[in-house]
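Obj.: predict assembly geometry.
Materials: sequence records (below).
Method: joint structure prediction, all chains together.
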Amino acid sequence: MSEPNSPEGRWPGGARCAVVVSVDFDAELPLLASSPDAVRRAKTLSVGRYGATRGVDRLLRTFAELGVLATWFVPGRQAENHPGLVREIARAGHEIANHGHAHENFDLLDLAGQRAVVERGNDALAEIVGHRPRGFRIPEGEWAPGLPDALRQLGFTWSSSLRGDDLPHLHPAGAGASGRLVEIPVHHELEDHPYFFFNLDPAFPAGQSRIASYREVLGNWTTEFTAYRRFGLCYVLRLQPEVTGTPGRIALVRELLTHIRGHDDVWIATAGEVADWWSATHEGNAPDHPSEVFARLTQGTS
Amino acid sequence: MTTTDPDAAEGFWPAGHQSAVALAFDLDGPTGDAMLNGSIWRKPSYFALGAYGPHRALPRILDLLDEAGVPATFFTPAWVVETWPEACRAVVERGHEMAHHGYQHERYWDLAPEQQAEVIARSQRIFREVLGASAVGFRTPSGDWHPETPRLLVEAGFAYSSSMRGDDRPYLHEIDGRATSLVEIPARWDLDDYASLAYTRNPDYPAGQDRIASYELTLDNWMREFDGHHAEGLCMTTLFHPKVSGKPGRLLLLERLLGHMRAAGGVWFATCREVAEWWSRPEVPTVLQGAGRDV
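Observations (raw structure tokens):
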């Protein structure tokens, strides 16, 4: 097969698997981006704003307690609205990455529009943390053909946007592109939002599903970790401060990370570190890798 | 056979076996509605979610099946066979069955009979070219088949279908009141991993954005289904999808399910084709073959 079944040598220092803890500092921005009238809905907005008011601090305390450095995806507007909080995240040693400007839905933007919000987010982040990020995560939707090359031109070396694979891969580059963008894929089952996010009106989930069992979600995350370690993969946990930075759910984060740290053969790294390692150890993808197949079938770049 | 009479199950399965398990996967890859309407070519992430099945999950599932010594049937759209030929040839080389599941996961309900025949002919040609043999089994992709579909399947020489939900034993399909040679191996939604574990956004699945279920409780459901099928001497098949239950943590559930079934003892693990062949033996009385049930 395209990747050896044995994870030997796949990760630095003889580690069996890689673990990336990532946080999307979204707060109320997805609500504002998806419902134009949300600006007048104080109660709904407060569901998201809880992330900035309470959740970020609680996640930062927990990460500090456990000695875990995470990758934070920060929409530029959060840097404008909460400069102190964003500086605090950066000062604690966490990695700061681009997440658009106002959590835009990329399905509604063309390539130029997508590039513009990435640049605007970069400007806002650079102003507060003093440097431009090297990593990007799409806020919502899919990217237009050519965005990976545009990201490279803007100085990005990696993305953590696509779903599907459980190992990093390289994005096929268009003609004249400088190098290949590393992708560090994400997974719904390793995110907090699909299990826990709830709002009565406007309804999320649309079908008003129950909030999932905390204990069972911790079980899913732990089972996945066991398997990622067994198969030598790249585990990407994706949290939102307004979802798991809460008094009841922070214990799940603490318990999971304590369990992961209890293994001495796990490489806990930022997404940037994983991307650096992957691009240093890989020239390309297997020819039948989904990103290569997609590029061939669309006769362009992904 | 009544559901509480264990004696009635005797003789259903090859000697010494109490029940049959025809483990089956729908190896859909990225085929389906988004490919049929072309929208997938603007959705690299959605494409990757589907492509995960043949590219990443399938080899690990084959390893798991090897370790357990259990054969399986993979209902595979021919587009996937064309796109990942080596991965699909490995299925056959490692002793499993590849079977028909449309070209791009078409809804047979939506197609005129001549269009259905085209999908079948095109897919069978690809199976012959890439895998060396036509499919003998058929599982209808998304939704219902067309009233004319069973006739087309008989004409095209299919030995069996695994498309219906209305029984927990195989039976023979009937057309115009007459039994045909087409065996049905019915499946149950209770053993479809989509019903508990699949999750996508835009397009949303589930449509109401319901949660991903607990892995432990899902495995508990599946094991209880097996326990019931085994106790009553029935034929259990599954609607598992490599892109859903071949994800790393879920492979551990499959591994435990296989271990649970093997530990029960007396299970005939077979491909769907083998079950259909067994059911078609002339010595199986027509009353047991249950011709025409639910058609």
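Conclusions so far: Chain A has one domain: 12-297.
To do: check interface contacts against the pulldown list.
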